[in-house]
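Might I ask for a little of your time on a matter of protein folding? Here, with my thanks, is the record as I have it:
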Amino acid sequence: MASHRRPKQTGPRRTGVLTVTAAAAVALSTQAASADPLPDPNKKGVQAQIDRLYEQATQATEKYNGAGEKAETLKKQVATLQDAAARKQGELNELRDRIGTVAAGQYRAGGLDPALQLFLSGDPDTYLERASTLDRAGDRQTAVLQQFLSQQRALRQQRAEASEKLRDLDEVQTELGRRKGEIQGKLREAQRLLNTLTAKERARIAEAEDRADRASARVDLGDETSASTRAAAAFAAAKSRVGLPYVWGASGPTSFDCSGLTSWAFRQADVSIPRTSQAQANIGTRIDSLGALRPGDLVIMRTDLSHVGFYAGNGQILHSPKPGAKVRYESIARSGMPFMWGVRVG
């Protein structure tokens, strides 16, 4: 390991030696510059812009995931309401047939009961308010008609709720399209900036990612004892995905975004957790100290809670970090993202 001791102060008697050394260094640096130009500081700015765009894309991805999760919930609610309305309509049809049979019998016998006349009129809803004034309206018949009208009102309510949910779903799907456009725009801009770099500079960036992946394979995780059996099972599932690519909006099994990896891994342990990092931040038991985390705990990163991974032990996170990267282990301290808190599930 390299030494981090501060260098000794230069004494007066060494000034002459250092002056000669400095002159030689200037000469050498001049020669080196002619052979291999110094890095363009503007290029470092381009790299910073690319990193920022990737960060913004991952943040937008979590919002996209949240809208997607809401859309799936609304779709299920709409389907449930529509199924219930269809069953209710079937029951009403059967009840209407029964009442129609009674009415036909009475008509053949010489006339309709006033209650049935009212029911078969254009405004049967007024029946319940006026039935008490009908001398010939029997209790049993009144109960049948009351059941019909009650179910009819319930059907109208279910259809109205389904229509409202469909409007909500339409709004969420519009949001999904907007988020998707935002993400794709960020990634296109990042690619445009990458294309302004030379092939050598792009290769240098790719090599940095490869080094991070290779370092992931050699990481020392220390004590891997998980806090719970379910967390251990989820963590084991996540470990099996190391080396697979980050893809925004993906939740496995062959590609992942950050919360896609954690939610997929817990599904393999028969545990259902929310899809987004922000929602995952508010489940289970909150662990505020990094030192108190155990392998398998969720690690919530960034002030907007837009990144999540698994604590892997020894200060490492197992996560799907960003576009262009792969699922890997990485030092939390060197990830470039502030640790917020941990979450212990089960």
In short: The longest strand covers residues 307-313. DSSP finds nine helices and six strands in the chain.
